[in-house]
Specification:
The protein is mainly alpha-helical. It has five helices and two strands, in the order E-E-H-H-H-H-H.
Length: 152
């Protein structure tokens, strides 16, 4: 829950709850407990967007039900918007790019072999671990591997 700027916030170690206190008035006088309580409810209701009587001392069950329903509605709307945005982005990416399998097939037709960075790194590690490799080949494999690992 958001709190107004300048509020005093603390963690009650006995109850484990977070508590917020509105700042004192400018003339140095502290609000009475009841005034602080009303302000806290008024601010909390404003932040959550409840349309309720701000001078009430407590929330009615109807007010809580309405607020919960509004929160659920807004959450559903946010999820729907997020899903639609993600779906649109995925479709745009698919229009711009082709799958790697399709690219590999097309390059094979041109007698070219395309390898992913992962495939190249596996080959370099195999070359380094091979007992048939010379010292120069192992050093070259390490340099090349360093390049690919740095990209990752």
């Amino acid at each position: 829950q958001a709190v107004p700027a300048g509020s005093h916030v603390r963690l009650n170690l006995q109850t484990g709850e977070r508590e917020a206190k509105l700042p004192d008035r400018e003339n140095g006088e502290s609000d009475t407990r009841e005034e602080r309580r009303r302000k806290r409810y008024r601010h909390a209701r404003h932040w959550v967007g409840w349309a309720v009587d701000v001078d009430a001392n407590s929330f009615t069950s109807e007010e809580l039900k309405k607020a919960l329903a509004k929160m659920k509605e807004s959450e559903k709307a946010e999820r729907k918007v997020s899903f639609l945005f993600l779906k649109q982005c995925t479709e745009e990416v698919r229009k711009k790019f082709r799958p790697i399998e399709q690219l590999k097939e097309e390059f094979e037709k041109l007698n070219m072999k395309i390898e992913t960075d992962y495939e190249i790194m596996v080959k370099l590690i195999s070359k380094f671990n091979s007992s048939a490799s010379t010292l120069d080949e192992k050093v070259a494999a390490l340099y090349d591997l360093e390049y690919y690992v740095h990209q990752v």
